[in-house]
Amino acid sequence: MKKVSAFFSKGGYQRQIRLTSLWIMIPLLLTSILVRFLLVGPVQNAYQRQHDKQVRAVVENINQQLSQMEVSLSVWGRYLQENIGPEALTTDDTDYQKIKSISQDLFYLDNSQTYVKSVQVYNFNGEVFRLASGGKYYISPDNERKVYNDFSIDNKRQYQWKMSDQGLIFTQNVDTLTKEAPQLFLVAVIDEEKLLNLFNNTKTPGGYSAIAFDDENRSLIGDTQAIDILKDLPQDNDNEVIRYQGDDISVTRVDFERLSQTWHFYSMVPLNTITEPVKDFSRSLIFISIFVLIITFILSQYFAKKQYKPFEETMTSMFGQEWNEREDLNFLKNKWQEMNIEQGKLQKIAVESTKSTKQSVLRRLSQGYYGYMQESELVELLEKNHWSLQAGSYQIYYIQLNDVIDGRKAKLGEDFMDFALENIVLEISKNHFEEIALLYEKEMTITIFAMGEKKSLYVQTLYAQLNKVLNRYVTVVESKEENKFKCLPTLVSKTNQRICYQTLTAENQWIETEEKGNFLAPRYPIYLESMIITALKNYRLDELQENTDQFIVEILKEDSRQFAFDHAIGRLYDTVSYQLNENGVSSIDYLDKVIVLERVKHILCPKRLSQFLYQEFLKPISMLWQEKITDSTHELMQEIALYIQKEFQNEQISLETVADEFHIDPVFLSKEFKRIKNINFIDYLTDIRIAEAKRLLLETDDKINVIADNIGYNPSYFNRLFKKITGVTPGQFRKSSA
Question: What is the CB neighbour count within 10 angstroms for residue 174?
Fold first, then answer.
């Protein structure tokens, strides 16, 4: 910038001030315009294109799954037509076995389809009812017409998607007898929440999503905000940026046809969080330009009446001696830096979205969701979702944490341990393979997909890091190399199952799926099982623990591999469970078999295995058994007391006859009756009889001999016994109370 004196060399002071303001204001205005039009649009468009691509990928996935579901349901519907026949189903004497068979098929359909909540068969011919996985249910006459209208097909086809009171349904005519007015329908109720949850993977923070199923009625599910927006959005609009509650919202719509119905998937993204920093910067430049223009106008009018000196003195007092050489661009610099930071955040969001989609499609492939696709189609699907397949072959690694190595070290929390296991394994795998993905994880286990040639020392590096950080022994199951992706679900299952070949030895172990082995059950120590059951029943805990220790030793002596141990523990569990069930102990009161086998899978030390079985399973069951037996005996003694009160007049009643009546041992009866009632059996019977004798003596005029017979005694014995207990004879008792 030139000296102030040079500003007035030509054209006067006021003109120079205005020209200077224009040189400042015009670049600022142009910069603000360029920023808004050259950055806002491209950033917004790039984000919209990426989001649109993601939405279409998810919708295509949903479409494929629904198409597969339609095929499965239609195949079963044809099976119902061809093998059972509507004319047989709708007869009044439909047998129980047929109903049971159909219900079992419906139960399988309920649980084999991702988006199906329930599958039912509705019959409207004659007796109106529906068949479901739970059996046969009748429909009230008041609801017959409404239910029929819900499921009737009006598109002149055999199938139709409809909206009903139950929500979104897929209905199929399986009635070959009355095609014009069918009376038999196969109806699948769709789990709209699962469908929406999968589509919600396209949402970004602050975004909304919704699905419209019916153009005529425009039935919607999704976020409340999305439904409010769609009420005012034209149905024929595919993509639009609209204003909603002061925010710019990008609306992306993807359609696909389902039979005669069009479904619309809407994903809405707030754009303000992406473009607002750029707009703020542009507005700031405009504000500065306007501010400069106003200041310039004021100064030009003011300083036109003054001389150079007063102006220079004023500027100097405001900015110092070097004010006319100052070039301060920090504001612009700071704003550009802020904009670069926001752009970096946007790119990070896009990368994370791509990574999530990439891993999601491989997980679904490993779980068998794409079993209907050919190998070439699977390759195309993976490449479309950013997988690089140049390496050709892949392997599966199942990694499991086992026993603690050094018990003196502090134990890590289970939540942190699982978190650390995942991060350590993924970080090491990234350094040893070209492509990796996490397929499966649960407590202390993880399954990894690895593509490319394995670098040396991969497994040894896993051992070293996991032993050091988590203080746990590690078992690694390594699959063979495979190059066909259609084999992935089977390979994952086989690899995970091979963990049963680990030996119960406290050490790191490496198992390859090529390893040969047999699953022959080892010799089972039945005599130790009997000793465990006996100790368990009699609550002899020392014997129970000792027998459990010996049981483990005998099993491992035969075969130290995991599957042999699991077989023996499973058999012991079944025996104990049977005994408990026979004695009325519910299975909900002790550990489930699946939990027991899952827990022992991570224990390699025989002593700790024995401690777990004793402390967590057998000892609590023994205590539970004793409580059950005590409660049962108490109820039995109460029942016997009531029996005595009812039958005391029978002169034949005795400890032995009552024991025979209740099928128990007389000695046991005598002991338990005294323990629970705090009185001997005979004394209890005598007290009841004497009390009845007193009542008869006071309330009746019966002779004493008759009263004795009525309470089960002969007269002479009754007189002696009555005097012994009361201190007076029966006659004296009657006179003294008269």
Answer: 26
